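Notes, p. 3: input format for complexes.
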Amino acid sequence: MKITDRIHYVGVNDSIKELFEGLWPLPYGVSYNSYLINDQKVAVVDTVEAGFEEDFLAEIHEVIGDKPIDYLIVNHMEPDHSSLTAYLLERYPQMKIVANTKTLPMLKGYYDTPEERVLVMAEGQTLSLGSSTLRFHMVPMVHWPETMVTYLEEEHTLFSGDAFGTFGNVDENVIDDEETFEEYRDEMIRYYSNIVGKYGAPVQAALKKLEGLRIDRICSTHGPVWEVNVDQVVALYDQLSRYEVGRGVCIVYGSMYGNTAAAADALAEELEKRGVPYAIHDLAGNNEESLGLSGALRDVFKYDTVAVGSPTYNGGIYPPAESFMKALAARGIKGRRFYAFGSYTWAAASVRLLNGLAKDMDFNVLGDGMAFAQAYTQEKCDMAALADLLASY
Ligand SMILES: Cc1cc2nc3c(=O)[nH]c(=O)nc-3n(C[C@H](O)[C@H](O)[C@H](O)COP(=O)(O)O)c2cc1C
Ligand SMILES: [Fe+2]
Ligand SMILES: [Fe+2]
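Output follows (393 residues plus fe (ii) ion):
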């Protein structure tokens, strides 16, 4: 796939993997994007995940035939992009890896890469491919310490690594059009919140660093190539990394026997009646309607209110709900409005403990919460009143 006269897409779609990083569901697949810049010298930007060797090599051959690759630019060492590094080094004995000082020990540790095959670039340094100039900028902790981006000056193109990436396969035409941003928006937020979400401050630092650059095209490592939607994509990343949210309620619950689930559904119904934007996530769910923890995190990055339902379990919080709270803490999420509810049978604990975890994160806990014994009823757990409370500011 040709992106410009000199930039070619040589990435792959992965429709087989069910969980990204062994954790995050992929209902629409994921792409590992690799790019080839064909000039007097040939550079490949990042590889694809191991398992796609043949497709990858075939795509490269289609563009350059038997011409050698001169440089492999490693923007990011996470194995979804770097795991064919050794494979390429072996096939292209004169190829050099272009990376930075922080990449070196990782290359050695993962692939036993000899140091003499690595060209180490510093912040702002350039590399000429003939009529193309590549410039490297370090963007540490987006979302690994060695991450850098590569800017192709003549094309105003940013090879951004995982930044601006999204879950979801890319179709035949990798380049975006007017609709692409809206089509991928939710998957992009889910990707950001699941993978990068902890690193809001480094993402902000990276955006500051790239502020002065003219960017006509973003070639990230996952999802479409952004041309028409560059401004929207950058604005979304800016908003997400500032932890900016809109009004609305993210209902998240775990339930063994359906009692806490019934309360969660009742709350959703009451919010619906009031026209309050909301999302509801069953933490045990893992399908297109509910993406479990993954989808819940996405919507915590959208909405300012979190309502968590958990039964009491062995004197504590039901483990999936506890993991959810830990996942919020791990992402440095602060300042959300919070409310807890849940069923118990002999001694309630989950609601009190959830409130404690919420306070530890500086959440605005809107009330004591509602613990109800055994089955859910509106009398025991007034979801209409809760919906009124959550709808008021
Ligand atoms: C393994 C297990 C541990 C439980 N531990 C407690 C407990 O410590 N205190 C309590 O009041 N109820 C406890 N319960 C009862 C549940 O809280 C009760 O069944 C509740 O209604 C389940 O809500 P759910 O239908 O939303 O799963 C426990 C239930 C199970 C299965
Ligand atoms: Fe990554
Ligand atoms: Fe990645």
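The longest helix spans residues 180-196.
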